[in-house]
Amino acid sequence: MLAALTVVLLVQGLRPGRGDQSSAETGGNIPAAAEASGSSSPQGAAAGPIVDPEHGAASSPAQTAQAASGIHGTRTQAAGAQAASTAPTASSATSSPSPSGDASTGSPTAPSTRSSATRTAPDPNGEFAKAVQNGQLPPGGPVVDTGNGSWHVVPGTSKPFGKGPQRYTFSVEVEDGIQSKSEDKAFADAVVGILSDQRSWIGGDKVSLQRVDSGKPSFRISLTSPMTLRGPCGHNIDLESSCYNRSVGRVLINDARWVRGAGSYNGDLGLYRVYAINHEVGHALGFGHQACAEKGGLAPVMMQQTFSLDNSQLFALDPDGPVPNNGLQCNANPFPYPRG
């Protein structure tokens, strides 16, 4: 009997406790949050970079860092846990235009492959798509799954827009190998048009923005293939999304979403693109995720509208996040200042 008891105690002593879970289950590496920007509260946006209007500050430093970094969700898989070691640096030589002003990176720009490209990666709509149907990637135009893993600056600058004292510069970049130069220009023009709209972040008279194509911008807005994006963004919620990675200074716009949009916008790809840019740039400016605050009201631009307009569905994706399980549903809204 003593021998049997000894064996039982040894086996129990070797079992790991609940606190021994791997980082792949508990969140992985999340870039640190930036300090508060001091922006006033836009309609439907955060009153500060971290604070949620219904819950105050995030409940833990890890949640605070996650909210401001723009990394969506908490269920980090192996790819997300390795993001810190695989993320490209913002100072990469491929992030500057050539002296001639060409957006190439030393080799001829690849012609667009969209006409023949198809999704070849694993199903982009994973286990959570069953519970959050609007979060599924809709059918639509062809997408290059994996680009070259480097980016080129799309040439072009702008005068500053907005009157705010908090001044930011940004470059517009596209991953090599996913589209043509004409499509690059269309993407850049769309970004400038969105951010110069008085309903965007300049509408609060706190922020001014300017597009640059040289030097070191405040952040880079980078159109990126879905599989490349999983390095710096992780693949936390098994659904296609974009993100902001503060450690490399990139707003990474998922090309699959740029081409196909999201169910919450009912097929309106143009408005979804406005939302995607404003939401991720909001993270670059220091704002975290928010919940729907009023049944039937306009969704805050910092709500994860790509996945759902229903608080309870977003809660199911991230029970430890700032969104309550209260069933409130909002209407899609792509602007931080929808009324100007």
UniProtKB/TrEMBL annotation:
Q: Name one GO molecular function term.
A: metallopeptidase activity
Q: What is this protein called?
A: DUF3152 domain-containing protein
- What segment(s) does the record annotate as region Disordered? 16-165
Question: Where does the DUF3152 domain lie?
Answer: 137-338
> What Pfam families does this protein's entry cite?
DUF3152
Composition bias (Low complexity) maps to: 31-49, 57-122
The record's annotation in InterPro entries points to: DUF3152 (IPR022603), MetalloPept_cat_dom_sf (IPR024079)
Q: SUPFAM superfamilies of this UniProt entry?
A: Metalloproteases ('zincins'), catalytic domain (SSF55486)
